[in-house]
Amino acid sequence: MNRRLLSSFLCGCFVVFPCLCAMADEENFILMNGNTGEIVVELGPQVNERFSPCSTFKVPLSLMGYDAGILIDENTPVWDFEPGYDDWLETWRGPQTPQSWMTYSCVWYSKILAILMGSEMIQDYVDAFEYGNQDISGGLPQPGPVDPFWINSSLKISLREQVEFLQKVYCKYRAFSALNILWENLGLRPRLFSVAPLVLIGRKHSPYCP
User: Is 55 a catalytic residue?
Assistant: First the structure.
């Protein structure tokens, strides 16, 4: 991933959280200082209540995909749309790349990526990330009408946990790669995805980042 793509990726991560609790009765919002970890603004009564991550699961899923060597760069791999795939949006009804997947939030691309990794590998990553309730028992259906574990299914995560997860990506694992987390938490051998000089954009050190 080049600097421009990664910068866009991280910026995109940080703007989703006012919408995380879309099914909640009231709006909920957390703004964190990425350098210090300080909560700047916290609004709403349900910031600790867990909900389905839905589209925001693309964030950890993309990190898994690059680390596993399935995603290569913003243009590779290209996967073609087929009849029967999720087609809620016109932009999904054609070939997709990692970049277009993130731009258009294409569900069938997420499903194919998850299927190629498999449940065992994804469970290892989710556990290593300490992502929400870490429950992927909802399954990995083929592209089509059945929802996977991260859409209105078994996996749940709170707004606060989402922010804390991104803080790990941004700061604690600033030599970030999913592989570094796996190295520390699972003892697995690192593989491909290393963006150490890119993730900590504009600052090399902070008191919050040992």
Answer: yes
Q: Which CATH number fits domain 3-199: 3.40.710.10, 3.40.50.720, 3.40.1000.70, 3.55.40.20?
A: 3.40.710.10
Six token digits for residue 111: 């499903």
CA 115 to chain centre: 16
- Average pLDDT for residues 162-172, to the nearest whole number? 80
Query: Taking the CB of residue 202, how many other CB atoms lie within 10 A of it?
Result: 7
Catalytic residue among 7, 52, 55, 194: 55
pLDDT digits over 89-110, tens only? Answer: 999 999 999 999 999 999 999 9
Does the predicted TM-score (pTM) go above 0.70?
A: yes
Which segments within 66-166 are labelled E, that is strand?
Answer: 157-158
Domain locations in the chain? Answer: 3-199
pLDDT of residue 172: 58
CB-count burial class (<10 Å; 0-12, 13-18, 19+) for 168: middle
Closest to 162 (Cα-Cα) out of 56, 62, 35: 56
Distance between terminal CA atoms of the chain? 25
